[in-house]
Design brief:
Rossmann fold, 7-stranded mixed β-sheet, 4-stranded antiparallel β-sheet, 11 strands
């Protein structure tokens, strides 16, 4: 779908997502610890990671004694996560990044979605997706998520990343109002494919407004001054 990443969720690029998005993962262990603390303090026993990638978050949270299942955006990612999580008992579901959320499981105590709120959802689609997140939670369940305000970010206009021998991505970024648009060229040996992706600036006021409209109450907020400064919030399903 227009504006959404797709190729890094598919082989051969999916194995190298952490290299592609290295700036985010610099501080990932610190954010994971906060996430685990909040889930445990909220009494969560059964949780879901929306956008589980190759399963790193699931692996960590389950080590802390909380069951976590995962939603993967493509079958390729599901296969990679299944390899990593073999024997863990984690249930894995495939649901496209642009929604709607598809999980065939009883309601969860907690749901985690990192990087989700900045995706280029139209207002109706954002609200429909929040409604599906609410349905995936039991009454009183918690929703943990982060989001960025782009004026706080320093993003190189153009960068090239070698993912592996023969695999490379070149990206050029431009800001247009509330939208961060990136032009990606993915090279696999002698083949090259392009895609244009977008992220949308979301303010705390907008996040509170949409959560309240969807039937959530904000419980905790924290500004994480990490490599990518971001807001990390927890809301409860009313």
């Amino acid at each position: 779908m227009r504006g959404f990443l797709d190729l890094p969720y598919r082989l051969p690029f999916a194995r190298h997502y952490k290299t592609f998005d290295a700036g985010f993962y610099v501080d990932f262990p610190r954010q994971l610890k906060i996430m685990g603390d909040w889930l445990l303090e909220s009494g969560c026993r059964r949780t879901l990671d929306l956008g589980a990638m190759t399963g790193g978050c699931i692996e960590y949270i389950r080590r802390r004694g909380v069951r976590m299942d995962g939603v993967l955006f493509t079958p390729d990612l599901k296969r990679l996560a299944a390899e990593r999580l073999r024997g863990s008992g984690a249930r894995l579901f495939v649901s496209p990044v642009w929604g709607p959320l598809r999980v065939s499981a009883p309601p969860y105590d907690g749901l985690v979605a990192l990087g989700w709120l900045n995706l280029p959802f139209s207002r109706p689609r954002l609200r429909a997706y929040l409604a599906s997140i609410r349905r995936a939670l039991r009454p009183g369940g918690v929703f943990l998520f982060d989001f960025f305000e782009f004026r706080e970010l320093v993003i190189p206009p153009t960068e090239a990343v070698a993912l592996a021998p023969g695999l490379r991505v070149v990206a050029h970024a431009e800001r247009e109002g509330r939208t961060l648009r990136r032009y990606h060229l993915w090279a696999d040996g002698g083949r090259a494919r392009g895609e244009v992706t977008e992220l949308v600036d979301r303010s705390p006021a907008e996040a509170r407004r949409e959560l309240a409209r969807a039937g959530f109450e904000v419980l905790r907020t924290s500004h994480l001054d990490l490599n990518y400064p971001r807001e990390f919030w927890m809301a409860r399903r009313r």
